[in-house]
Amino acid sequence: xxxxxxxxxxxxxxxxxxxxxxxxxxxxxxxxxxxxxxxxxxxxxxxxxxxxxxxxxxxxxxxxxxxxxxxxxxxxxxxxxxxxxxxxxxxxxxxxxxxxxxxxxxxxxxxxxxxxxxxxxxxxxxxxxxxxxxxxxxxxxxxxxxxxxxxxxxxxxxxxxxxxxxxxxxxxxxxxx
Length: 177
Hints:
Structural class: alpha/beta
Shape: globular
Distance between the termini: 12 Å
Low-confidence stretches: 164-177
Radius of gyration: 16 Å
Number of strands: 7
Largest sheet: 7 strands, mixed
Oligomer: single chain
Number of domains: 1
Strand content: 25-35%
Mean pLDDT: 85
Helix content: 10-25%
Order of helices and strands: EHEEHHHHEEEE
């Protein structure tokens, strides 16, 4: 799916992680474990992003995750469903050296931030989808001592105020790869 600016958006067709008050982050962490050991290629620069064994815990239990409430918490939890596609459409934005002692090995060569975008359906009280909410986010990638890039977390999730394309309102179709 693409927006009016022709930027790629990953359409997430199902709300798997629901919660009126809070998200079950333990369930999200368990779900993410299926990605451990996999690797995905970023289309824009052909970088290979690996999913390490520390990713599920960081994603579900980071300080950033703990600070999320409401729609943004639900967005982060459900973005986990389409992690490969989020990596594939990502675009690198910036590099930052590692300054923290605790990451001197796992992010020895620093950090990259990649921008990505996704859409979640919004259903009315009858269970019919009425629109898509579009979110932008940054994927935090650590450049490890072994020379590989690892997905560390998804942060800075923001709901966009733009109107989604009309054709996507009823026929949600993720980008094909």
